[in-house]
Amino acid sequence: SLKGLDLRTEIDRLRKERNAVILAHYYQKPEIQDLADFVGDSLDLSRKAEATDADVIAFCGVRFMAETAKILSPQKIVVLPDMDAGCSLEDSCPPDQFKAFREAHPDHIALTYINCSAAVKALSDIIVTSSSAQIILDQIPKDQKIIFGPDRHLGGYLSRKSGRDMLLWPGVCIVHEAFSETELLKLKAQHPGAPVLAHPECPPHILDHADHVGSTSSILDYALRSPDETLIVATEPHIIHQMEKAAPHKTFIGAPGADGNCNCNMCPYMALNTMEKLYVALRDLQPRIEMDEELRLAAKKSLDRMLDMAG
Ligand code: 13P
Ligand code: SF4
């Protein structure tokens, strides 16, 4: 039983014993963010995973992120506290269907959001994250036809911004899909002048009301730099933890779902990771990400292109 254990102290002890680094995404529980060696967005986390000299990476995020760490750092042991921490975008894009879609459009390249399986990465030309997508798209010749998957909202946002047509895969993030425009407008009316910061996984009826659109890191940056005292945050609300830590005098309000609060916008997959499971993962070095070497090398090609092009 884990009862009576001081999990923070035990995790610290194991981290040293195992020469492990704990990487956490901004959507993790505050207690996990607070003990992580590094907290970041998907691009930052993949760079850290590639650069670390630790023997073990304890990845507190979702499975595609831990898989990315393994693809970039095959010699390291990568543990994910809960192997069921998936992603609705990954689920929306089964590799066989994606392969058929690609084959139906042989003159298109596949620009693919990192929120997908290793098998879909292996079927793609270039991976992007929300913070690198624009920079990468700008480097692709204007006449090149593009398939963008699996997030149709990020794809639609990039299309509108760049004026380029892309064939969009119909996936969505269930978390960002749940924001309510009606409730957001009510909230804006209650806080006149408060800027809305939104993740590009939000549907267009939410992005239309945003003053800033960007990745989790970019939203955090904006929130801290902005002179505004009250800000509305339209992404998974656990990121507000970092905002409140860095700017305790400001007020950050999570954008609401249809019920008028931001509880329905918590990512159920991210929430599967707990302090207990992180402790067990470091103790047992399980559950571990394992990957077939051929698949890893195929997926690494499109990821390496992203890392090169993102600058
Ligand atoms: P970023 O942290 O790259 O903005 O991604 C958000 C997200 O939904 C991760 O699952
Ligand atoms: Fe996937 Fe959305 Fe959760 Fe991110 S917030 S892991 S995109 S379901």
Automatic annotation (TrEMBL):
An example GO CC term for this entry is: cytosol
Which ranges does the record mark as transmembrane? Answer: none
Q: Spell out the subcellular localization from the entry.
A: Cytoplasm
* Presence of the UniProt keyword Ribonucleoprotein in the record: no
Co-factor(s): [4Fe-4S] cluster
Which principal EC class is assigned to this enzyme?
A: transferase
Checking PANTHER family in the record gives: QUINOLINATE SYNTHASE, CHLOROPLASTIC (PTHR30573:SF0), QUINOLINATE SYNTHETASE A (PTHR30573)
Q: What is this protein called?
A: Quinolinate synthase
Q: Which organism is it from?
A: Allosphingosinicella humi
